[in-house]
């Protein structure tokens, strides 16, 4: 497969845009950065007083990059407007280069979710909307069949992380969706809404979480204030997610799965789809095949690690991956290293 690529300048501009958005995420602290350790993991919070109460606003999980930004937060705060204007220029450059942007309705919805804290608090976009964002991460061009936009927006998060963070979205996810004319879709379990449909369009927003047992029922995501549908294999997909930039206004930062995990997960999902879902399975294989071809060339070690991780998770995982690869000889050859 011949891989069409964006220019080196455009690829660098995308990562400059993302870096600027990450700077803004820590620029406007109200109080003091505070280190908190829970269950062997370290998180950072913005601690500040409201009257006699001390409030904690979640910033992110500990990393060298985050600690560096926190040490510079005063300087970053002083340059907020300069960075916003610079990002607007970068967005214009990327659009001129041919990068895909979202329609205004989807862009404004994801922007509102980001402002409320959905992605800061562990929400990870999965599905085709995530796939489209690998264009910037990997610096590749998508064909029309690969990049077709879907109306559905799927957001996944770990239940245990959502419980551990001790912070919530503001405004609530329900309020954000109501503002955009979404109504809860009635389910079998009263009071456990995990999907919303837009009354003036066809957009469906669904919340998902990993299932660690046989039950694929509903689970709470306290940080997001919603219920989520528990699904098998999702824990593999959303482990160690990465940040991504959406080309809307001066850029919006969201969170997506690592591309190598997305590719291998699609092999599993494609084999699970049967009957009426055959067209979706074909789309899953196309997306997986494209990413595998790019990653085999650009990030072979990451791809191999993700493949071996999935293979190590048991015979059912190996059977589903093998079944999809039997229909994808190029991807099978790329993974047979």
TrEMBL record:
InterPro entries: DUF6788, NTP_transf_8, NTP_transf_8_dom. Residues 23-67 form the DUF6788 domain. Residues 106-310 form the Nucleotidyltransferase-like domain. It comes from the Bacteria. Coiled coil: none annotated. This is Nucleotidyltransferase. It comes from Actibacterium lipolyticum.
């Amino acid at each position: 497969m011949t891989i069409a690529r964006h220019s080196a300048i455009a690829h660098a501009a995308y990562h400059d845009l993302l870096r600027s958005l990450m700077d803004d995420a820590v620029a406007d602290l109200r109080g003091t950065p505070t280190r908190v350790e829970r269950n062997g993991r370290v998180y950072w919070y913005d601690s500040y007083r409201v009257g006699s109460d001390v409030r904690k606003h979640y910033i992110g999980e500990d990393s060298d990059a985050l600690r560096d930004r926190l040490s510079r937060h005063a300087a970053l705060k002083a340059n907020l407007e300069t960075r916003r204007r610079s990002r607007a220029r970068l967005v214009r450059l990327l659009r001129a280069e041919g990068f895909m942007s979202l329609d205004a309705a989807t862009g404004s919805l994801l922007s509102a979710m980001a402002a409320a804290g959905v992605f800061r608090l562990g929400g990870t976009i999965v599905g085709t909307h995530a796939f489209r964002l690998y264009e910037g991460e990997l610096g590749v061009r998508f064909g029309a069949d690969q990049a077709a936009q879907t109306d559905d927006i799927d957001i996944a998060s770990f239940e245990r992380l959502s419980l551990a963070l001790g912070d919530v979205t503001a405004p609530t996810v329900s309020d954000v969706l109501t503002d955009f004319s979404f109504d809860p879709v009635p389910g079998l379990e009263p009071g456990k809404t995990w999907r919303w449909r837009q009354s003036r369009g066809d957009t469906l927003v669904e919340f998902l979480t990993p299932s660690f047992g046989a039950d694929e029922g509903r689970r709470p995501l306290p940080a997001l204030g919603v219920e989520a549908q528990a699904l098998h294999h999702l824990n593999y997909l959303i482990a160690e997610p990465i940040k991504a930039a959406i080309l809307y206004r001066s850029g919006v930062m969201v969170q997506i799965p690592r591309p190598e995990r997305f590719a291998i997960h699609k092999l599993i999902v494609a084999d699970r789809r049967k009957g009426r879902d055959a067209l979706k399975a074909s789309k899953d294989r196309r997306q997986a095949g494209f990413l595998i071809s790019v990653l085999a060339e650009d990030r072979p070690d990451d791809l191999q690690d993700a493949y071996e991780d999935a293979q190590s998770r048991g015979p059912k995982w190996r059977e589903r991956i093998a079944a999809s690869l039997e229909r994808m000889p190029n991807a099978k050859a790329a993974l047979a290293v």
